[in-house]
């Protein structure tokens, strides 16, 4: 396990601390012709050797470095201005997964899909996935009978901010419920109420207040229900 932690530490240092923004921009513009791309990979190799401090681990280090190069190049060729943010997260997830798989195959040597894809992990993934986009669409459908544009007229917000806030709060509530920390759910509701108090106080529209309260109760209610359901079925 200590080796796996060192591998992740090397990735974090190499990708987030030793990669200036100008290097990223050069890689995006020149792609495979960018010298910074190869320097970036070389830094990762050096970090892996330094942190593990074991030459016999060279097959693992080379495997991780090659996979890192392939993932970075794939990202450079497929991302564009609209999908750049999405590809950042895809890139990081793929790096983490590749490190874990390489470590399991070459060090632990006991990789078994059945030990990872269990009923509990599938159920957890299903619950979290449901609480993101599906619930957002369900709530939009529920509120489609009211014209939110009129209610929020003159009070613009960030694009899709409400959707992201809703997704994050539902996932947090779900996590708190399955960990049996109901007090944290209450704290989250209180915190949101405090932040919303200014909007509700300044707003003279009773309908907007009702809209926000209904939306909050439905969002939290669904997350609590899914959390209880997960605890019952796992």
From TrEMBL:
Keywords assigned by UniProt, alphabetized: Membrane, Transmembrane, Transmembrane helix
A Pfam family matched in the record: DUF3307
Transmembrane segments: 86-107, 122-143, 171-191, 211-233
Keyword Membrane: yes
InterPro entries: Phage_phiKZ_Orf197
UniProt entry tagged with the keyword Ion transport: no
Name of the featured protein: DUF3307 domain-containing protein
Lineage: Bacteria, Pseudomonadati, Bacteroidota, Flavobacteriia, Flavobacteriales
């Amino acid at each position: 396990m200590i080796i796996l932690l060192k591998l992740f530490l090397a990735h974090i240092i190499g990708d987030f601390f030793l990669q200036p923004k100008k290097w990223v921009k050069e890689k995006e513009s020149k792609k495979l012709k960018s010298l910074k791309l190869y320097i970036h990979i070389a830094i990762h190799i050096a970090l892996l050797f330094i942190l593990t401090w074991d030459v016999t681990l060279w097959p693992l280090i080379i495997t991780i470095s090659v996979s890192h190069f392939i993932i970075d190049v794939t990202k450079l060729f497929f991302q564009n201005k609209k999908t750049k943010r999405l590809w950042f997260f895809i890139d990081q997830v793929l790096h983490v997964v590749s490190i874990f798989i390489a470590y399991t195959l070459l060090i632990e040597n006991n990789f078994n899909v059945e030990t990872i894809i269990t009923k509990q992990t599938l159920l957890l993934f299903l619950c979290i996935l449901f609480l993101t986009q599906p619930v957002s669409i369900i709530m939009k459908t529920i509120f489609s009978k009211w014209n939110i544009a009129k209610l929020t007229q003159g009070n613009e917000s960030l694009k899709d901010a409400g959707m992201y806030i809703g997704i994050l709060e539902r996932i947090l509530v779900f996590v708190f419920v399955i960990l049996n920390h109901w007090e944290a759910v209450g704290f989250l509701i209180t915190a949101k109420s405090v932040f919303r108090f200014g909007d509700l106080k300044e707003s003279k529209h009773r309908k907007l207040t009702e809209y926000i309260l209904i939306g909050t109760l439905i969002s939290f209610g669904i997350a609590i229900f899914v959390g209880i359901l997960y605890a019952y079925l796992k």
